[in-house]
C-alpha cells in the first residue's frame, strides 16, 4: 500500500477498440497491470471510422486502421498505453513507440468450429469451411480433403454464426481469440500445427506506450515474458524477410524449450514455417532451431532458406 501511495494517484489510461475481442484483451491486461503494480487502469474507447461504419468495412480496411488510431492516441498523449493482437501489427517498428511488454502467450493454434462436433478429418468431401484468411485457406486446400473453402468476414461472433445457422459446415478461428471471449469450449478441434501453422504472432499480445515515458515503459515491463517475446520476434522477422504482408499465405510458429549447450542451460526456439500457394498445391515448409537470444537471426535465416527454395514464387499466386 505504501508503494502504491508513492505513485501518482491518477489511473493509467488504456486506449482500446470497442470490439468484444479488443475489450476482453484490454480488460485482461488492465487487471494484470493493477495486480502487479498496484496502479489503477481505466479503459478509454477509441472510435475509428471502421468502428462506426459496418464491420465489413472494418475488415476490408484491415486492422491497420485501428492500429494507427490507437498509435495516434498514444503519440498525442490522449491515452497512456494500448494493447494490440500482435499478429495484427505491421512488422516495422513504429517511430516514438515502445513494445513495453509481450505477455506470456496462451495457445497460439487455430481452432475448428464444426457442425455436430465434427473434426476436420470427419468433415466429408464437399463440406463448406469458412475463412477469410489466405493462410488458413491455403493450408486447408493443401490437405486435399475435398472441402470447399468459402471466403467469409466479420468478427468472431459473426463467423461462429455461419455454423450455428447452418450456412456453413465449419469455420477456422484463432483459439486465443475464442478463449479470450470465454468461448474456447465451442471449438470442436484444435488444429495440430502439423496441419495448420498459425499466423506469425498469433495468440500473443503487444503492450505499447510512448518511448518518451521511460518510467511507464519500465512499469509495463513487468508483464513481459522473454520467451514469448523471442518466439514472436523469430516469427515476425521471418515474415518481414519474406516481404509478405499480413494477408500472405505464411504460417510460422516458434516453440520455446529448455535446452543445453556445453553443459550450460539455454532457452531454445524451435521455429516451423510454411509458405503456400493460394490453391495449396505447392508449398515450402521448413524448420530450424536456435538460442532464444538469437531469435531475430533465426527467423531471418529460415526465411532466406525458404526463399532459396522458391517461396517467393508461391506468394503471388491466386486461386483461379
Ligand atoms: N485478424 C483478427 C484477429 N486478430 C487477432 C485474433 C485472435 C487473437 C490472436 O490471434 O491473438 C483475431 C481473430 C482470429 O484470427 O480468429
Automatic annotation (TrEMBL):
It catalyses: 4 porphobilinogen + H2O = hydroxymethylbilane + 4 NH4(+). Its cofactor is dipyrromethane. The keyword Transferase applies. Binds 1 dipyrromethane group covalently. The modification S-(dipyrrolylmethanemethyl)cysteine is found at residue 246. Its EC number is 2.5.1.61. Pfam families: Porphobil_deam, Porphobil_deamC. InterPro entries: HemC, Porphobilin_deaminase_cofac_BS, Porphobilin_deaminase_N, Porphobilinogen_deaminase_C, Porphobilinogen_deaminase_C_sf. Keywords: Porphyrin biosynthesis, Transferase. Residues 12-216 form the Porphobilinogen deaminase N-terminal domain. Coiled coil: none annotated. It comes from the Bacteria. Residues 231-307 form the Porphobilinogen deaminase C-terminal domain. The porphobilinogen subunits are added to the dipyrromethane group. NCBIfam families: hemC (TIGR00212). Tetrapolymerization of the monopyrrole PBG into the hydroxymethylbilane pre-uroporphyrinogen in several discrete steps. Monomer. Belongs to the HMBS family. This is Porphobilinogen deaminase. The gene is hemC_2.
